[in-house]
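hey can u run this one w/ 4'-deoxy-4'-aminopyridoxal-5'-phosphate bound, need the structure tokens asap thx
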Amino acid sequence: MEDDQWIFLSGEFVRKEEAKISVYDHGFLYGDGVFEGIRAYDGNIYRLNEHLVRLYESAKSIMLDIPYEFEAMKELVAETVRKNSLRDAYVRVVVSRGVGNLGLDPKSCGMAQVVVIAEELALFPKELYETGLEIVSVATRRNRPDVLSPKVKSLNYLNNILVKIEANLANVPEALMMNNEGYVAEGSGDNIFLVKNKALYTPPGYVGALEGITREAILEIAEEEGYTIKEEPFTRHDVYVADEVFLTGTAAEVIAVVKVDGRVINDGAPGVETEYITKCFRNKVATDGMQIYAQEAEIGG
Ligand code: PMP
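ok here u go:
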């Protein structure tokens, strides 16, 4: 796979070994840029519009001009998956401020740099989807929305990386961060849901989490399936005493959490509602996407 992987960079497809960025790119020097993580399931790109809306909104927020129209960017993502002959793929779109001088002023930068990478991905080992995750809550706080909005999916992921380092130190695959008031915000790269007495809880936007596209899909499922939805702030205590806990994200999909800070959730096994919602999510991703390969001709059609 590695040898024949094609990456879109500076307006063309290049081999992975040749996909190099200047050390003067402000994405590298300052984390100045935005990105998206997108997924294709069996030749269907899941919710590409929503991902690209978030990308363009993040870019607008930091006054970064993406040098492609929305529709052209959609095609670029599809083309990168096709170029790598993938049906199931994780796609990373990165838009950095581009090459400038050593000063942080973005005025010195030329055109934004657009990179698209498509590859196969499994975030957590497969068995963790059956056993569920053990996680911890960490001291690192989510950056405050009034300082750097978590809605901007920027290349500045240090906040999340510090959370990951704390998870590593605790020897667990993921961790939860609180906001400045101590309310649960999200994981390092995923949103959190609780199930309690058949109601589904997730922190509202103002608590300060990325507005996850998977989170949105789960809220839609919850509505379709008649769950009571409660988008309200909650604390670690609520997590400890929840009937079920799960995390959602493009890479993670839906994954059960069975232990938090040493407190066992749902007897230590993924719960029935989590399993049911996961099944509904799988149905959604199988049917709700942008087909990127020509359909095979129907027999007799
Ligand atoms: N929170 C953070 C900090 C993330 O990086 C991600 C992954 N993009 C998510 C939540 C989940 O968002 P989505 O479902 O759109 O992938």
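The radius of gyration is 20 Å. anyway lmk if its weird
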